[in-house]
Amino acid sequence: MEQIEYIVLSTCPWCDSKDIHFRNIIHDFFLTNEEFSLFSCKGCGLVFTNPKPKNESLARYYHSDKYYSHTSQQKGIIPYIYRRVKDINLKTKFSQVTVGSNIEKVLDIGCGTGDFLDVCRQSGMVITGIEPDEFARDLAKKKLNIEILDPTQSKSLPDGCFDLITMWHVLEHVPDLKMQISELSRLCKKGGKVVIALPDYKSYDAEFYREKWAGWDVPRHLYHFNKEVITNMMFSGGFYAGEMHAMKWDSFYVSMLSEQYLKSRLGMIRAFLVGAISNFKAVRTGNYSSLVYTFIKQ
Ligand SMILES: [Zn+2]
Q1: Cα separation of 113 and 71, whole Å?
Q2: What's the predicted TM-score (pTM) here?
Q3: Ion ligand 1: residue ranges with CB closer than 5 A
Q4: How many domains does the chain have?
Q5: Distance from residue 42's CA to the centre of ligand 1 (Å)
Q6: Which residues form the domain of 86?
């Protein structure tokens, strides 16, 4: 078996503070069952996976038929629900991020197999996609009939050329957080929008499932955000916070996955209840299982 190499972080990957503290241990229930520690930073509030696999070793944690964002033909109830929810989500995402804006050029970072870009192009936008996974990138190329960039090619894109940049559950995966925020800042047009979807570990479903919460998804998720952390981060990149939307289906989906990790009887029924309670509580707290943040470039 190949040797996995890890990087031990002694400072925060965002603010460089040395005031970082062990928080808890989470298993990679999704794939390897390896355990990873989470640390939190007293300086900026970011929670991060530490140690983390070196960049060259990260791909191994994505090599699974279970990695639904890259597959579309699997049988079974969860993949089926995932696909149906994805279709509805795509339309919702599109209308939420485009309402009231005149968008000509869109960049989807971590575009997967290109579904969101496909919807954007159907409404007349000029589309660009970046995707690190070669398999997904090839599928997106075939589907959209355009070149899809790998992340190292991001630098070749001109400054301020996009009206809209989207990262749908992607920022928590990027190897270099600082570089990613600075690229967002460079690529977004003044007055343009950056839309970032992230899981929220302050949601009720996260509290309910604790270490078994599927939203931790270590070590694929290298960072674990909350509202204050992402807002401050984007502010330092030259963005101010715009509107925020809930991804209400995610509470059900994440709860279903978490129940699989618990291997509980009647898990799917409980997942439904937890998902519903999570959405209900979030009406007051704003802490939905997943949130879509909009940031405007100053
Ligand atoms: Zn920090």
Answers
A1: 8
A2: 0.91
A3: 12, 14-15, 17, 41, 43-44, 46
A4: 1
A5: 6
A6: 72-297
